[in-house]
Design brief:
Belongs to the damage-control phosphatase family. Sugar phosphate phosphatase III subfamily. The chain contains 18 helices and 7 strands. The chain is of the alpha/beta class and 426 residues long. The protein folds into 2 domains: 114 residues, Transcription Elongation Factor S-II, Chain A; 298 residues, Rossmann fold (3-Layer(aba) Sandwich). Strands 1-7-6-5-2-3-4 form a 7-stranded mixed sheet, sandwiched between helices. It is globular and about 60 Å long.
Length: 426
């Protein structure tokens, strides 16, 4: 399975890159913190080397020993996993649900740094995220230019034209999800060509396409919208770099076209899955755009900084997004976050990890309805924008999945196919 290859090959590669990154920053740690920095780097590397060995030799998963705020929740989750194994021994790296052990590895990477001040705030994935952003410059310029030109005439667009533009930018945001560094084990995965040119050719690869449903939801919300109630869209972010820029353009379009009155972004509170967006990445990206020496890029950055200042854009992070739990347990584990999401008119979940957590990462039959796979997670109408990079997919028509499978056995792990999959929460 794709899960097996991930644990056997990709995760050890990612750990090796993390160790290498710390090695390469040794002098920087010394310059900033003296011997203390070097000692902390050695301890972190030793911790990570041990972790890599545990993973590769299928050792039992051990409780977290740090004092971080989420440690108790993680250890409680491990106890539940032990109970699930029906006395078949301790949960181990190769004998446990993929979603759980993969999340656990990233949490242990975080612990390796968090427990070793003064390098405890160092993001081992930061360089890769920055590189993805810079290598995607041409695509970012093309997208910002297209968008700024669109804004000049946005007031004159009729409903049909607005719908067309929304669908375009939804697709750019969907395919932006291909730029995923955990998928490529940290190898470059930037978007180099203009993302708008190939959209027509990509439509056949969207195996569930509910864009019409999104459109009617937003249009109806807008019609219902009185002075008192604002239309709110929440985007649960995935990768930094090009994908994040495509999400920000989509968010700005919704505001500028008055399809939404405010957009809330949800990112990760710690470095996660190599390229996932943290608050630092979010702010850094907007600053980079602002200071770019390209007129339309910097215009985007300046406008977006303004959206944050005006409060029509809001960034949130929450500990829950970096727990191993799937979303059906959010109401119980993080009732505050669930209540926050209930305020939304539409939740857009970006990417594969969010899809796995929405559907419990199970080996569903292809035709199981999305609503059923969500297992009572219905805080508000929601939509998954995701390119497929794991063995789980629901809501297909009878025979659809089997037909693709026959010609492309690895189709669910290739990132070549995507979904815009909607559930109305009713």
């Amino acid at each position: 399975s794709f899960a097996y290859i991930t644990i056997k090959d990709r995760l050890p590669q990612i750990l090796t890159r993390v160790i290498d990154t710390l090695h390469r920053h040794k002098n920087e740690f010394f310059e900033e913190h003296g011997e203390k920095g070097v000692e902390a780097e050695k301890r972190a590397i030793s911790f990570l080397s041990k972790l890599r060995n545990e993973l590769q030799t299928d050792k039992p998963v051990t409780p977290l020993e740090d004092e971080l705020p989420d440690a108790a929740l993680w250890n409680q989750y491990l106890d539940n996993q032990r109970n699930l194994s029906n006395g078949n021994g301790e949960p181990s790296w190769f004998q446990s649900p993929w979603l759980y052990v993969e999340c656990y590895m990233y949490r242990r990477i975080h612990a390796a740094l968090a427990q070793n001040p003064p390098i405890d705030n160092f993001d081992v994935f930061k360089e890769g995220k920055a590189q993805n952003f810079f290598e995607s410059q041409e695509a970012i310029i093309a997208l910002c230019t297209y968008f700024q030109e669109l804004l000049k005439n946005i007031k004159d667009l009729d409903e049909k034209q607005l719908q067309e533009e929304l669908f375009k930018l939804l697709q750019v945001s969907l395919w932006g999800n291909k730029c995923d560094l955990s998928f490529s084990a940290g190898e470059g995965s930037s978007q180099t060509s203009s993302p708008l040119k190939s959209l027509e050719n990509m439509v056949p690869y969207i195996v569930v396409n509910d864009m019409e449903k999104l459109w009617s939801l937003l249009v109806n919300a807008k019609k219902r919208n009185t002075e008192k109630s604002k239309v709110r869209v929440d985007i649960i972010l995935d990768n930094a770099g090009f994908e994040l820029v495509s999400d920000l353009v989509l968010a700005d379009f919704m505001l500028s076209s008055k399809l939404a009155d405010e957009v809330h972004f949800h990112g990760k509170s710690i470095p996660w899955y190599v390229s996932d967006t943290t608050k630092h990445d979010f702010n850094w990206t907007i600053k980079q755009l602002q200071s770019a020496n390209h007129m339309w890029m910097s215009r985007c950055g300046i406008n977006w900084e303004g959206n944050l200042k005006k409060g029509v854009w809001v960034y949130h992070d929450h500990i829950f997004w970096t727990l191993p739990h799937d979303y059906s347990s959010m109401a119980e584990v993080a009732p505050d976050l669930y209540a926050e999401l209930q305020k939304s008119d539409l939740l857009l979940f970006k990417g594969d990890l969010n899809y796995r957590k929405l559907t419990g990462d199970k080996k569903w039959e292809y035709t199981v309805p999305f609503h059923q796979a969500l297992n009572k997670f219905h805080p508000a109408p929601l939509c998954s924008l995701r390119t497929l990079k794991s063995d789980t997919q629901v809501g297909l028509k009878p025979g659809q999945g089997e037909k693709i499978q026959a010609s492309e056995p690895q189709w669910m792990g290739s990132g070549k196919y995507g979904v815009v999959q909607f559930d109305d929460a009713l």
